[in-house]
Amino acid sequence: MGNGVMQEIMDRCLQIRSLISFHELDKQTFQLSKFCYLRVLVLEDEDYGHLGNQQIKYLGSLIQLKYLKLNSAGITNLPNRIGHLQNLQTLDLSGSIIEKIPPTIGRLQNLVHFLVGGYYVYFPDDIGNLQALRTLSFVCPCNPVNFVGQLRRLTNLRILGIQLHCSCRDKLGDHDMERYQESLESSLTLLAKHELKSLEIDFGDYPAADKLMDSICSDARCLQKLICCPSLSRLPQRVSSLVSLAHLGIGVTKIKQEELCILGGIPSLLYVSLISSEAPGDRLTIGSQLFCCLKEFVFRTKGIGGLRMVCEREAMPMLKRFNLEFNAEESESDMGFEFSFEHLASLENLSVDIYCYGATRSRVEAAEAAIRNTTASIHPGRPTLQIKRWSEDLMVEDKDEKETWLKDYTTDCEDEVDAMEESEETVANQENDLEDLYVSKYPR
Fold it and tell me: What is the DSSP letter of 434?
């Protein structure tokens, strides 16, 4: 934005109600405090980070502001006077690296939507004062114990996205971790009992994810969208009671037939993304009257050993899009490939991603043939079929080559482990040398 254009804007600043800038602002020309009638302010500089804390120093003077979006890596702090923006309804910081939210945030009694970037942020206890808040996402608090304690006060929340903490990564002591788990479970369960409609949780390596989800699903009848990652060890207990659920993204260690039937019985599901970290041990059958309203189904399995999936008559009668992802590599307990999708009456698009890493060429071709046989030649609706191979360059030609490949792979892994052990030993020796040097120079 040239200085001439900015000067023209400044000359008419009293008439401007919305200001959206995607460029660096000249520090000499741009005076934010003069836009006293501004309702909408968007400052974006995602690529270069030229926008900084100096440009928003007088943000608190824009008392009529209703929408504020700050998207710049150079913006790391909010001014304390942000609490003067009594008319602010949306605060979007998702593109900035804000390190600390000032306590004055609690004065924003009309704030409805608060979006944070997912970076570690310090939230004051005053966050619990935002009683008008409907959206809070995606939060990663660096003061987790206090934050989840205040979270329970936000009973009007409809949308929540949160990243959880774990004791090993965030160095919470045993006592604080216990307090955190108890407070987190209590707060999220309470919000779910009210009118929370959308919940997205990133567990990281949180140690009690299954127990937490069991508690949340015990009474969350208003929940319409649930996304949780990474995988749980199993489906949450009473997930079938989520009678309003329309959008589900979930992963488990190994999906079982009975769990698939439980999900299929949720009457309102329109979209499901289901991940099985290990390949299912048996054939998965989607029976009649399951997933009655489902429009899109994404099924991914990360394990090896084949995949057998059969859809019976009247199963998923409204399904239009089906995305399937699996590994073609065989295992000792291999069950091969079997697919039967010809009864999916409304199917319009079938997209298949095959991961070829370590699989023989004949194995990949067999998987593709099984898919084509259930669609191109049998399915009456002739749905669009897309098959894509991934890591095709790591595919092997035959079993003999695979054995050689596995032997080389095992050797490489062992060499890598040996190198890591040698590196750790070197670091330990260096630390001992430094300690000896310190003791010799500064004897006790």
Answer: H
Do residues 202 and 163 touch, judged by C-beta distance below 8 A? yes
Residues in the chain: 444
* 106 secondary structure, DSSP code: G
CA distance 391 to 329: 12
> Helix, strand or coil for residue 19?
strand
E strand residue ranges, 265-347: 271-276, 284-286, 296-301, 307-311, 321-327, 337-340
Please tell me the CATH code under which domain 1-112+124-131 is placed: 3.80.10.10
DSSP collapsed to 3 states, 80-100: HHHHHCCCCCEEECCCCCCCE
Q: Assess contact for 70 and 47: CB atoms under 8 A.
A: no
Q: What is the pLDDT of residues 142-198, one digit of tens each?
A: 888 889 999 999 999 999 999 887 644 456 666 678 888 899 999 999 999 988 999
Owner of token pair 């909010």 = 78
**Could you report the per-residue pLDDT of 36-86, keeping only the tens digit for each?**
788 998 888 765 556 777 778 888 888 899 999 988 878 888 899 999 999
Residue linked to tokens 């302010």: 41
Distance CA 214, CA 228 (A): 13
Q: Would you list the domain boundaries of the chain?
A: 1-112+124-131, 260-397
